[in-house]
Amino acid sequence: xxxxxxxKTAKETAKSTYTNRLRNILKSxxxxxxxxxxxxxxxxAVLTYTFGVIxxxxxxxxxxxxxxxxxxxxxxxxxxxxxxxxxHLPRNQGGRGIPNIRTRHxxxxxxxxxxxxxxxxxxxxxxxxxxxxxxxTPLRLADNNYGPAEEVQTAQESKAKWRSKPLHGRYLxxxxxxxxxxxxSTTYLRTGNLFIETEGFIAALQDQVVSTKxxxxxxxxxxxxxxxxxxxxxxxxxLDHILSGCSVLAPKAYLDRHNRVAGIVHQNLRVxxxxxxxxxxxxxxxxxxxxxxxxxxxxxxxxxxTDRTIPNNIPDIVLTLKNEKRTYIIDIAVPLPSNIMxxxxxxxxxxxxxxxxxxxxxxxxxxTIVPIVVGATGEIPHKLHAGLKTLKLQNGLYIxxxxxVLLDTCSIVRRVLGDQE
Length: 421
Ligand SMILES: [Zn+2]
Hints:
By secondary structure, the chain is an alpha+beta fold. It has helices spanning 4-27, 32-48, 58-74, 84-88, 101-120, 124-132, 155-164, 169-175, 182-185, 187-191, 196-206, 213-218, 239-245, 250-274, 340-361, 382-390, 398-417; strands at residues 290-292, 296-300, 317-321, 326-333, 366-373. The chain folds into 3 domains: 4-167, no CATH class; 210-248, no CATH class; 251-405, Restriction Endonuclease (3-Layer(aba) Sandwich).
């Protein structure tokens, strides 16, 4: 039997080793996903070895969870007002994937008890251990009715809690709506090649907790005399306004974000249809207005000359396949997540007259309007996959598109609001 005193020492050692390892990992330049893996294996293991051997209380385990989040905050990788549920949920469920130590503990106790009780059926030794353990170890093997001391939230319950929160839940409700690709919207968490600080900031944006003037006034209850946007001075400074509604940010910041997505699509069309073999990194790519090969004609942001006046005659990209007599009108948008479907429909309506005109003028078999719409905080609608398919581009292209949008959105908000916690 381990003496009470030894328990205490062993626990202190485990705690400090865990914290040191956690800090070292956070200090490293690992990507967010690899960092999470390292925490899971290298840091948390120090604690899991002791589960079932040393007695831990629920309070102590929750303290370790809190301490973990606090260390993340020091590295600006977790916003203090961000959803706690998401922090601990697995990455394939839209979470950050940082282990919940209390859940780990509960799982380990349950597994070890199950192991000993099953073994006891056939092994004398295990049977002896089980009957001897009358509260000797945290497993309490002799007590058949000993269950988890208190309920620990399952991933589903934790997700339900996240979903029900008015601010934090908005993101989850959006990506879980029918029109959206829930899994695709969280791909950036699984490919995980962003830095942890960026990932933390994205979570804060999706959770709606960055300190805009309206957030400071309405949620933090601070005294804010003028809640108008610091950029345009016209509209109230809501996060949504900064993400995609500000007239001062539109001509440069939003346009750059938009053009980088358009550039990814444009360059890949050249690869697919025009034999382009040497590609440029997307953030350095500046297309020419016209590219032409024997079978394909590609316009970038170029007015289409028509016989009669057409109001919207400058789509982002126009691709014509001469042999097949097909034209694609491609237009890009990065709206608020709540406006994705509306924007998609607007794009189609906007270019219908031009599509008709091109069909007649250029004697095309078909003219297809392909909106490419991505939410400003990385939300992916099913229609984006459909659009890429129509263009015969590889579906995986949504991943660099999502990353590009997320990085630009982060930098826009950071530039406007300055350094956030
Ligand atoms: Zn503004």
